[in-house]
Write a structure and sequence with these properties.
This protein is an alpha+beta fold. The protein has two domains: about 140 residues, endopeptidase domain like (from Nostoc punctiforme) (endopeptidase fold (from Nostoc punctiforme)); about 50 residues, no CATH class. It has a six-stranded antiparallel beta sheet. The protein starts with a helix and ends with a helix. The C terminus is likely disordered.
């Protein structure tokens, strides 16, 4: 079962390189694509609807749903769902740190404010929010992670694919990387590794 760390590493990577997920291949990087992607690719269940529909969708799929109320504190890995004044769609994103009870550290898509946001969306961005407008949270059945974090440079694999991590914990962005004596565009390499897999890349002499 995927762990919180595993899922967040991938979503943080997307935010750091200014990319995102378009889970349904429609309307670009919409906010609901992140929870829908996580639900299907890590837990094998589809979520339906716009952001405001996700709590009902998640409940129908058997996921834990926690409604906003006194004493409710969001945790890392939770999917928040909130109302947006004047919008029937609502908004959603993923919480990336356990909340202090006052603010939420999140990653969200489609918050750039571009005029064509309904047609093309917007990439994953780091954000900080208050609890204002929050309706509830989806808590996926993450597996326990008892490993000790080790900071190392190299290709990191999770249950979805591969990506590259620098020794200081950052991720390459618009950069070339010398890997085993060869120079690679790190973002393109990550894409190739996701498609081909590490054994194929190594057998081809390019990874």
């Amino acid at each position: 079962m995927a762990t919180v760390r595993e899922v967040l590493d991938f979503i943080v990577y997307l935010a750091k390189i200014g990319s995102g997920v378009d889970n349904d291949q429609m309307y670009g990087f919409q906010c609901a694509d992140i929870p829908a992607y996580i639900s299907y690719h890590y837990f094998g269940k589809w979520l339906w609807g716009n952001a405001i529909d996700l709590l009902n969708s998640a409940k129908a799929q058997g996921f834990d749903v926690i409604y906003e109320g006194d004493g409710v504190i969001a945790k890392a890995g939770d999917i928040f769902v909130m109302e947006v004044p004047g919008s029937p769609y609502g908004h959603t994103g993923i919480v990336i740190e356990d909340s202090d009870g006052y603010t939420l550290k999140t990653i969200e898509q489609n918050i750039d404010g571009n005029w064509d946001f309904l047609e093309v969306g917007g990439p994953a961005r780091f954000n900080t929010r208050s609890y204002a407008g929050m309706v509830g949270y989806i808590r996926f059945p993450y597996g326990s992670d008892t490993s000790t974090p080790v900071q190392r440079e190299g290709w990191i694999q999770d249950s979805v694919g591969w990506y590259f991590k620098n020794q200081d914990g950052t991720y390459p962005f618009n950069a070339w990387k010398n890997i085993d004596g060869n120079w690679f565009d790190s973002i393109l390499m990550a894409m190739l590794l996701r498609i081909l897999g590490s054994r194929t890349m190594k057998a081809s002499g390019i990874g």
